[in-house]
């Protein structure tokens, strides 16, 4: 992989933008459709694998908190690797956090998503 290049968030691939919009709107079925059947999601130190794992992540991840999400930045490493930076504000410890959503894409589907500060 090469070094990431900063881009405008609107320049993220349509699949990533669709996932982010659907997840923020609580449209979990639409969000799930952006993932490959063998996708892996890692969030809060836990990895979810496959279709059922992605469903579990979408329904359980962060569900104990109420928060808003704002897309504040983006990076492109290559045609398969992208980063979306989201600012979350809510009733979780600390109240505000910027999280990096590291996406891997193949055939216009998300094959991997790693969420970390």
UniProtKB/TrEMBL annotation:
SUPFAM superfamilies linked to this entry: NTF2-like (SSF54427)
Protein name: SnoaL-like domain-containing protein
Species whose genome carries this gene: Auraticoccus monumenti
């Amino acid at each position: 992989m090469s070094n990431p290049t900063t881009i405008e968030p609107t320049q993220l691939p349509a699949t990533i933008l669709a996932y982010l919009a659907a997840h923020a709107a609580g449209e979990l079925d639409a969000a799930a459709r952006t993932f490959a059947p063998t996708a892996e999601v890692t969030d809060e130190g836990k990895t979810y694998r496959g279709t059922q794992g992605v469903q579990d992540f979408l329904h359980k991840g962060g569900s104990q908190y109420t928060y808003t999400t704002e897309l504040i930045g983006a990076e492109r490493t290559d045609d398969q690797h992208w980063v979306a930076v989201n600012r979350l504000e809510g009733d979780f410890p600390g109240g505000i956090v910027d999280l990096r959503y590291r996406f891997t894409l193949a055939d216009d589907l998300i094959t991997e998503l790693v969420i970390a500060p």
